[in-house]
Design goal:
574 residues; alpha/beta; Ubiquitin-like (UB roll); Alpha-Beta Plaits; Rossmann fold; 3 domains; four-stranded parallel sheet; 20 strands; 35% helix
């Protein structure tokens, strides 16, 4: 049978065998509410919100897991269905810590919207609530079990999409909870702090640590020269927090908003993305020419680095020694830039705006400091930056465009695409090809490393060498690649790995919701920005060239290595 024909609310629809009633309803344009369901990741039928009436069945059925049958008749809006949904939502709310006005997800909460949709106006079921567990053990994530509704979406993303399994169900019945096993905190297990659980959570049972107050205090401190850097993926997403369509490029408006917040200088992480390519590209060439460890693997994604430290500690030598662009920026800002202004490193306060919750952890690593002074002082997510802009009464959506400040605000299209899966690889290939061959690339777009396929492979001729590369995004895909590396079966020269699906544009600190359709629009926004740039190759960035001439010396030289490179820490699995 090629298709299954059924009727939903008197609408005939044909779907593929194996589809669920929810799939069929969506194809028919019928909106069935869901809560525990997460498309393509988690379907458990646990919350009982998607209940429907199937003709011939004695009980109501969960549409997200009930398979279609030929000739089936389904009703989604009967009095019995509406009453059952309202009953389910009331039961969930009866055990939920209802702190909506002060909640991080207020006005962007699936449970809040659902309660309004099904008509819950009072809770008929009262009594004691489950014990609240507040886990603030990490610099990135805060886990609040008082708000957990036991939907299981976070556990599925952690186990399936990311292949980490740091959280799961414990206990049963009324004592059931979601979190690390044996009552541990997140800091005590192999959590990589990627924040994909935040996107999966329909409420605020897990959220990023709010560091905005530290930035407000720095901005008010007349003794601090406060600078901000913005990651490439932020400009493709922050507009969503102000009602703009997903993928709306707002680079110039974002710069204006940050300048109006009071930052002394507004810089671009794309500058040090270009710098990273010079360092990383030359490191790769050094390994190729001097028998270094291959394949070399990118080190820009802190969630991926922590994953490797936990699950593949014996393979750490494969990682590039380059700091991430965020950390390179901080190091340059507190040395080169400080010298230009005649300031001491401790007088420069560096704020990062990142799409990533793991960047908060990265900034606090012992390796990311010089003489006791951190490279980066505070990391804000895209969401936190938007909240600060809103708190200041600034509407980003209608601001004029302004330019980044010099010199750390100059960048190329290669830096812009760092936010996409495959972007680091493509930027590196543009530079490595021209450095090795001395020839100009005619075609700058390496389509073989683009797209949402989990693992992508390509072979690129660079002079006399056929350079074999691989790109992976999402840690389950990274595990697949790393198992080949560990087994000695990976014949690649260079591998790019990004922790989050889609790359940084899908980071745990990006606006909610983030799904595949939204990821695709953000990705296109960065490719469009690349195409619009006059300079599209990292080694053509004149500000980076000047940085080497005035301060660093040569790429991958001794001074650059001391300032811009680092090492990693075997952690093991807990």
């Amino acid at each position: 049978m090629d298709t299954v024909k059924l009727t939903i609310d008197n609408i005939e629809v044909n779907v593929a065998p194996g589809a669920t009633v929810l799939d069929a309803a969506r194809k028919a344009g019928v909106d069935i509410p869901t809560l525990c369901h997460l498309q393509g990741v988690h379907a458990a039928g646990a919350c009982r919100v998607c209940l429907v009436q199937v003709e011939g069945q004695r009980n109501l059925q969960a549409a997200c897991v009930y398979p279609v049958k030929d000739g089936m008749t389904v009703r989604t809006n009967t009095p019995e269905v509406r009453a059952a949904r309202r009953f389910s939502v009331e039961l969930i709310l009866s055990d939920h810590h209802q702190e909506c006005p002060t909640c991080a997800r207020n006005l962007n909460c699936e449970l809040q919207r659902l309660a309004d949709r099904v008509g819950v106006r009072e809770i008929h079921y009262t009594g004691s609530k489950r014990e609240e567990i507040l886990d603030e053990s990490t610099p990135s994530l805060v886990r609040d079990n008082g708000k957990c509704i036991l939907c299981g979406r976070c556990t599925s993303v952690c186990q399936q999409t990311q292949g980490v399994g740091a959280i799961g169900y414990s206990e049963r019945g009324y004592k059931a909870t979601v979190g690390p096993s044996f009552g541990r905190n997140l800091a005590d297990v192999s959590c990589v702090l990627c924040g994909q659980c935040i996107h999966a959570c329909p409420v605020a049972a897990i959220r990023e640590r709010d560091d905005t107050m530290g930035v407000w205090e720095a901005l008010a401190d007349i003794g601090k020269h406060v600078v901000v850097q913005t990651a490439p993926a932020v400009r493709a997403a922050i507009g969503e927090e102000f009602g703009l369509p997903a993928g709306t490029p707002v680079t110039g408006r974002m710069v204006t908003a940050l300048r109006r917040l009071g930052f002394d200088a507004v810089f671009d992480t794309d500058f040090t993305a270009d710098l990273t390519i010079l360092e990383e590209g030359n490191e790769l060439l050094h390994r190729l020419q001097h028998g270094g460890v291959l394949p070399m693997i990118t080190s820009c994604s802190p969630g991926w680095i922590k994953f490797c430290e936990h699950f593949f500690p014996e393979e750490l030598d494969h990682l590039s020694s380059c700091k991430s662009p965020q950390q390179m920026f901080g190091a340059v800002a507190k040395t080169y830039y400080a010298e230009k202004l005649g300031l001491r490193p401790e007088e420069i306060f560096v704020v990062s705006i990142m799409p990533c919750t793991a960047k908060k952890f990265e900034a606090g690593r012992d390796e990311m400091a010089s003489n006791g002074i951190r490279d980066v002082d505070v990391v804000l997510t895209t969401r936190e930056a938007a909240a600060m802009i809103k708190e200041a009464g600034i509407d980003l959506s209608c601001l004029p465009n302004e330019e980044f400040d010099a010199p750390l605000g100059m960048s190329t299209g290669a830096g812009a695409i760092f936010g996409n899966t495959g972007g680091v690889m493509e930027a590196a290939l543009r530079t490595v090809y021209e450095v090795v061959t001395g020839e100009k690339l005619v075609e700058l777009d390496f389509h073989a490393v683009r797209g949402m396929e989990g693992v992508k492979e390509a072979t690129v001729p660079v002079g006399d060498v056929q350079v074999k590369v691989a790109v992976a995004h999402g840690l389950s895909n990274a595990r697949t690649v790393m198992e080949k590396v560990a087994a000695g079966e990976a014949d690649y020269h260079f591998i790019e790995i990004m922790c989050c699906p889609g790359g940084c544009i899908g980071g745990g600190g990006q606006p909610i919701p983030t799904d595949d359709a939204i990821r695709a629009k953000r990705i296109q926004a960065l490719y469009d920005e690349d195409l619009s740039m006059k300079l599209r190759k990292s080694h053509e960035n004149p500000a980076v060239t000047t940085l080497y001439e005035e301060f660093l010396g040569k790429p991958y030289g001794s001074k650059a290595h001391k300032l811009l490179h680092t090492s990693y820490t075997p952690r093991g699995v807990y």
